[in-house]
Write a structure and sequence with these properties.
This protein is of the alpha/beta class. Helices cover about 40% and strands about 20% of the residues. It is built from eight helices and seven strands, in the order αααβαβαβαβαβαββ. The chain has a seven-stranded mixed beta sheet, sandwiched between helices. Bound molecules: S-adenosylmethionine. S-adenosylmethionine binds near residues 95, 98, 122 and 141.
Length: about 220
């Protein structure tokens, strides 16, 4: 019997990429410069996730967005491109070196005026935001043990109908392996268990890249 899911092979993944909007020169060059940083480049979101984030931002007609975990800027550019003309994205990260790369590519991608990149522990940046419900879209892709605290700060500030995305919710399969009890795995597993029962949101967990959950505020 045919399975209801299609496992991605390398060939099929190439096909998927070929049938998504292609990254432009700025994003391709950013991916190349990030790859040159070495194994840490694995932190960058996948190409199809970039297309997906732009799509979701447009779908929501997003004006106010927040990103937790910017690294060299691929997801930030992808979100910023989907915002309405007067849209603004607040980015949170800790690392000045990666932020320097991100800022260069924000300019190259033509979205620098839309983005504020704050270098500080994300929890401090989020707690300093006004308590009003005006955020349309948030994307969380930083330290995994911090996801729950970021959610707790972001949800009250999200407008009804607004969406929070959580990256890496499958954690390379580790969340479904009870023998895996690393701190990150335990944190993501607890978050997944919590979100599926959280009455304040509608959620969907998608098998994009390393797993992406979207939570829509009711
Ligand atoms: C997986 S990477 C983000 C990848 C990025 N979304 C992209 O598309 O390239 C995680 C980022 O979170 C940042 N980070 C980790 N802990 C953080 C914290 N407590 N506050 C703010 N940023 C943090 C790291 O410096 C790193 O750049």
């Amino acid at each position: 019997m045919q399975e209801k899911f299609t496992a991605l092979t390398a060939t099929l993944y190439d096909y998927l990429i070929a049938h998504n909007p292609p990254p432009d020169t700025a994003l391709r060059e950013l991916a190349a410069e990030t790859a040159a940083l070495g194994p840490i480049s694995i932190m960058q979101i996948a190409v199809e996730q970039g297309a997906f984030l732009t799509f979701v931002a447009r779908l929501l007609g997003a004006r106010r967005a927040v990103e937790v975990g910017t690294f060299t800027g691929y997801s930030a550019i992808s979100i910023a491109r989907g915002l309405s003309a007067d849209g603004r994205l607040l980015c949170c990260d800790l690392n000045e070196e990666w932020a320097g790369i991100a800022r260069r590519y924000f300019a190259r991608a033509g979205v620098a005026e839309r983005i504020t990149l704050r270098i500080a522990p994300a929890i401090e940046t989020l707690r300093a935001l006004p308590p009003t419900s005006e955020i349309d879209l948030a994307f969380i892709d930083a330290d995994k043990t911090g996801y729950r605290a970021y959610y707790d700060e972001l949800l009250p500030r999200l407008r009804p109908g607004g969406v929070i995305g959580f990256d890496n919710v499958l954690w390379n399969g580790a969340v479904a392996d009870p023998a895996n009890t690393t701190e990150d795995t335990v944190a993501l597993r607890a978050l997944n268990d919590f979100l599926v029962h959280d009455e304040r949101v509608d959620i969907v967990m998608l098998p994009i890249a390393d797993g992406l959950t979207l939570a829509r505020k009711r």
